[in-house]
Amino acid sequence: MGRDTRRSRLVIVALLIVAFTLITLDYKTGRSASGARGVVHSVLGGVEDGVTAVTRPIGRTASSLAHPNRYHDRADRLAQENAGLRRQLADNAEIGRMSKQLGDLRLIADKGQYSIVPAKVIAVGDVSGTDWTVTINAGRDDGVDVDKTVLNADGLVGTVSSATAHTAVVRLACDPGSRVGARLERTQLLGAVAGGQGPSALTFTLYDASYRVQKGDRLVTFGSMDYVAGVPIGVVTKVTDVGGLSRTAEVKPYVSVGTLDLVGVVVGRPAADPGDRLLAPQPVPTQPAPTQPAAPGTATPGTATPGTATPGTATPGTATPGTTTSGTIGAGQGGTG
Amino acid sequence: MWDIVGSADTLRARTFVAAIALLSVALVVQVSIVARLGLPGGRLDLVLVLLAAISLIEGPLVGAVSGFVVGVLADLASSHVLGQSALVMCLVGYAVGLVMDATERSVAVPLAAIAGACMAGTLGYAATTSIFGEAALTGGEAVVRALAAGIYAVLLTPFLFPLLAAGSRRLSGRPRRGGR
């Protein structure tokens, strides 16, 4: 046993009591961002921004270390020049990647006529790994505010849950506490998309039980006070519940949490609902369900999973024999079976 | 807290400050760099690895106190209930500190202790989150994640542990691990 067993026991008991007191107080009084949280968020956010800014060009620094400056003779000079050019190439690749991301983001914002503030992800989650949040390097000074919608080139990322002057915390759509009003593509049918299934799955509940949700149906945000309308959310991969007053389905989000880099915060809503404009065009509208989601050009990681699904894996009672039900929009209406 | 002030001779304040500073740096590195690496299977928990190593070297008291302080800091920086990771990290620091005298017996002891601490800590995070908030992970996911955290801890420990031990020896200004 280590030294001071009696004293360390006293200390740990005291610390545990303090921990439980903190938990009780915070749990009871609600989790509003108190002053201390705001201070810690803004300080840590600044540090995280700095760390990200330093670690991003780290490959460049390493390559410059590998090619030190020596002008002694011609070979060395050429080698140095070579290294410089190589650095420039690497820089260009990075700049090209960034500008493509910015261009894609701009494109989706233009399609929906959103006014966006671009921002970079500077921290992912928290230390315990149980928070589905990311921290971005834009804050109140840039026009970002709590409850604004955050998207990237692929679709919906989440909403801003708290903001300091220069950073903001975004609650991802896959957070267990997140609920997003969703609309089925080409219909006005409403539902809600909730998280809690891990990073690559969402749960969609359709309020109208008479409509048959099918694998391959795509979802966009419905739009409300907080959310702008028309942001692509994901594609239905599996219908899980067909009984009761509502229908539940599993949704594969377009956005992959692991590769989040550049995001846009929607600070200005469009004058009119953009409808389904932001979804990638589907190849043939009357295609059977299994090939439907494989829309080329979406360039999302989400297209891989639906494509691999075979008709046999569909839940019975949804549309298993009905791979020929071409009219996915209105044909299912009234089938209250 | 009264015992800490009362026995300042044995509980060098420098050790606490160094431990907490190191863990605070790890806090930022964890969310800004490690979390972005996208390691397969789960995540490396740098903070837990460091906390376990520090407790193993410095004992249960340093482990519990620094775990608690850094835990509160982590809670303030997150969006979950305050005190949640403080509770887990405090317990992890204390429990690992209890086996500090066994580290001289075998090289496997620190490895096992730190890996075990990471797994227990990851499961503890998942458990406290599902008790105090909404469950962020299902049971299976939490177990997979805990195993991954343990494996990454085993990979990292051989590099970190000797470094920390040397740092602690230098900080105290005498060969600590000699005659006990």
Automatic annotation (TrEMBL), chain A:
**Comp. bias (Low complexity):** 294-328
Q: What residue intervals traverse the membrane?
A: none
Q: Which GO terms describe its biological process?
A: regulation of cell shape
Answer yes or no on keyword Signal.
no
User: Which GO CC terms are listed, alphabetically?
Assistant: plasma membrane
* Occurrences of domain Rod shape-determining protein MreC beta-barrel core (ranges): 129-266
Q: Which organism is it from?
A: Frankia torreyi
Ranges of Pro residues compositional bias? 282-293
Q: Which family does it belong to?
A: Belongs to the MreC family.
Location of region: Disordered: 274-337
What domain of life does the UniProt record list for this protein's source?
A: Bacteria
Q: Which Pfam families match?
A: MreC
The protein depicted here goes by the name Cell shape-determining protein MreC
Keyword terms of this UniProt record: Cell shape
Automatic annotation (TrEMBL), chain B:
Its Gene Ontology cellular component terms are: plasma membrane
GO BP field: regulation of cell shape
Extract the InterPro entries matched here. Cell_shape_determining_MreD
Q: Which Gene3D superfamilies match?
A: 1.10.1760.20
The keyword rRNA-binding appears for this protein: no
Q: Which residues cross the membrane?
A: 16-39, 46-69, 81-100, 107-127, 147-167
Q: In which compartments does the protein localize? A: Cell membrane
Membrane topology type:
Multi-pass membrane protein
What are the record keywords, sorted?
Cell membrane, Cell shape, Membrane, Transmembrane, Transmembrane helix
Q: Does the keyword Transmembrane helix apply?
A: yes
Family to which this protein belongs:
Belongs to the MreD family.
Q: What is this protein called?
A: Rod shape-determining protein MreD
Q: What is the lineage of its organism?
A: Bacteria, Bacillati, Actinomycetota, Actinomycetes, Frankiales
